[in-house]
Amino acid sequence: MIELIHGGDIYSAHERGLEAVLDFSANINPLGMPDGVREALASGLGSCEAYPDPLCRALTAALSQSLSQPAERILCGNGASDLIYRLVQALCPKTALVLAPCFEEYEQALSSVGCTVRRHLLREEEDFRLTERILGDLTEEIDLFFLCNPNNPTGQTVDQGLLRRILQHCRERGIVLALDECFNDFLDNPEAHTMRDSLAQNDNLILFYAFTKMYAIPGLRLGYCLCADRGLLERMYHCASPWNVSAPAQLAGIQALREEDYRRRTAALIRSERAFLREGLAKLGCTVYGSHANYLFFRPHVPHLRERLEPRGILLRDCGNFKGLSGEFCRIAVRGRTDNEALLAAMGELT
């Protein structure tokens, strides 16, 4: 039996008899799919009668303009996770470093090529922040370092000065720094945390992004990465079939980049509701850590929170299978006010 390790598994919940669920386990924009993206998908159904563009030329051009990055630095994929696996396949690293806790798919991808994985443990007494201790683990034996900013599941960001020292250490030691910025858009000041301005001078840096979270289209599967090493991107391209980004996904991505008002409304909603949830969790007696993106990471006020909320039709992410965590921790997505009130009310009834 395959063990599913991620949030958003509403299908298993349905199998267990839950027909209607309130899903806090997947960190998806609570505004839902933008109307413009929905319309672009509906009007572009005819594009499915032809093979999708294997080079994603129109989408790449739109990303190039939106990000002010040369098109040759961009590679699109079937979600960010697809590109993570393709990077690992292209590099075939012997030894890699990951954080713990962190997004589990990095280690899954590394294990698929027989890579030895070393873990840098984040400490609860340091609020699960990344500190300068990480520099001691960036040795010449490391080929690839996966880093997530903001981190998943903690929502902690990396100090920009430390991040640049990490990049310098990696460059001096021949380490590829794979930096996952998939949740960057949900930070209060995204531009203050991105490393896109370092790409031109550092061909050992690769950045990952997804349309999934911001535009609420996880079912379409669409992501991209940025890297100045064109040879590496070409090797990554050949690690998948040439048509793995569907025509509808490419159309959705082009339209999503035009949704400026949607992004502004998202920023305001996430900022407000994140504060509302943080305050509500604290009042219940939960301990909240980090949580600067569109999800909150906390130690709950009662044991077995996930199991006790599921019969009420509420799903959250039990972080018990994240490596590096001891005890009970949970992660919840920031949703709209009605849903957030329902969650806090249900948690308040548990003693």
3D structure, described in words:
It comes from Ligaoa zhengdingensis. Its cofactor is pyridoxal 5'-phosphate. Keywords: Aminotransferase, Pyridoxal phosphate, Transferase. Residues 21-339 form the Aminotransferase class I/classII large domain. GO terms for molecular function: pyridoxal phosphate binding; transaminase activity. It contains 11 helices and 13 strands. The strands form 3 sheets. It has a 7-stranded mixed β-sheet, with helices on both faces. The protein is α/β, with parallel strands linked by helices and 351 residues long. Helix 3 runs parallel beside helix 8 (247-256) and helix 4 packs across helix 7 (230-237). It starts with 9 loop residues before the first helix and ends with a helix. The protein folds into 2 domains: 10-33 and 260-348, Aspartate Aminotransferase, domain 1; 35-256, Type I PLP-dependent aspartate aminotransferase-like (Major domain) (Aspartate Aminotransferase, domain 2, 3-Layer(aba) Sandwich), CATH 3.40.640.
